[in-house]
Write a structure and sequence with these properties.
A two-stranded antiparallel sheet has the order 1-2. It contains 3 helices and 2 strands, in the order H-E-E-H-H. Helices cover 38% and strands 5% of the residues. 9% of the residues are buried. By secondary structure, it is mainly alpha-helical.
């Protein structure tokens, strides 16, 4: 939280605190402390962090399920509705940016007919 950098828990690092931190929205809950560092939901930076998923997996396929709507029919009116929509837009925006980056990186591989296996 203090550094603004993404923290990723792997293997034995995935504790109850890490799971709670991954769902910690800063306007609703206090930051979760792990090893003297404070954490909020990482969705503001990467939702999910796709590059580690791809680089650390032996699989070449990845399926994502979008949990938040891209568009809403109405404008949020109450403060809570506004906060909810800010979270949706922020979390979706980080996913879209990372997906676009991966699509751009994929083009040279596709153009050269390189097999990445």
């Amino acid at each position: 939280m203090r550094s603004g950098k993404l923290g990723i828990s792997r293997g034995a690092q995935i504790s109850l605190d890490a799971v709670v931190a991954s769902a910690c929205l800063p306007v609703l809950f206090p930051a979760v402390e792990i090893d003297r560092e404070s954490y909020w939901d990482g969705g503001y930076i990467a939702n999910p962090s796709i590059v580690p998923l791809l680089s650390e997996s032996p699989n070449l396929d990845l399926m994502l399920v979008q949990a938040h709507p891209t568009q809403r029919k109405s404008v949020p009116q109450t403060p809570m509705q506004v906060i909810d929509r800010i979270n949706e837009v922020s979390f979706h925006g980080s996913l879209v940016k990372e997906a676009h980056s991966l699509a751009i990186l994929r083009e040279p591989v596709h153009d050269e007919d390189i097999d990445s296996r």
